[in-house]
Specification:
Strand order of the largest sheet: 4-7-6-5
Mean pLDDT: 88
Shape: elongated
Low-confidence stretches: none
Distance between the termini: 51 Å
Radius of gyration: 19 Å
Structural class: alpha+beta
Order of helices and strands: EEHEHEHEEE
Number of strands: 7
Helix content: 25-40%
Number of domains: 2
């Protein structure tokens, strides 16, 4: 079943992408939730017109995302966590903590656009990936320190 995404969906695609999904996933989840529409001929024509009109705006958004990626590359965040005697942290470092630390630096990024690929088990320096745009991804360094 071919559908057109109306929003970004992690692991599936970005807004205005035409993707192939299983019929049950499309009919029972994506379309009723308003995340997608069927890829009919009329919807494809509407999509093409929308993309053509939004090309200039999309270029501006991409440029802003690239500038933000440059800022993030030079930034190192400090995340505080309780650390036991063995050197392991209690709990875990979450994307919400990274998003809050970025907010303190004046950079607002939704926590859903941040992913930590390596499990953080103790103090040290780690990296998280930030998805700023469909073509722009950046890594932000963070250091886990004891409270």
């Amino acid at each position: 079943m071919e559908i057109i995404l109306k929003t970004d969906i992690k692991g599936l695609g970005y807004k205005n992408d035409k993707v192939e999904v299983k019929p049950g996933y499309g009919r029972n989840y994506l379309i009723p939730q308003g995340y997608a529409v069927l890829a009919t001929e009329s919807n494809k024509k509407i999509l093409a017109e929308n993309i053509k009109q939004a090309a200039h705006k999309a270029e501006k958004i991409k440029t802003e995302a690239e500038e933000l990626a440059g800022k993030l590359a030079n930034l190192t965040l400090e995340i505080k966590a309780k650390i036991g005697e063995s050197g392991k942290i209690f709990g875990k470092v979450t994307t919400l903590q990274i998003s809050d630390a970025l907010s303190e630096k004046g950079i607002n990024i939704d926590r859903k656009k941040i992913s930590i690929n390596v499990p953080v088990q103790g103090a040290g320096e780690f990296e998280a990936e930030v998805d700023l745009h469909r073509e722009v991804k950046s890594n932000v360094k963070f250091v886990v320190v004891g409270e």
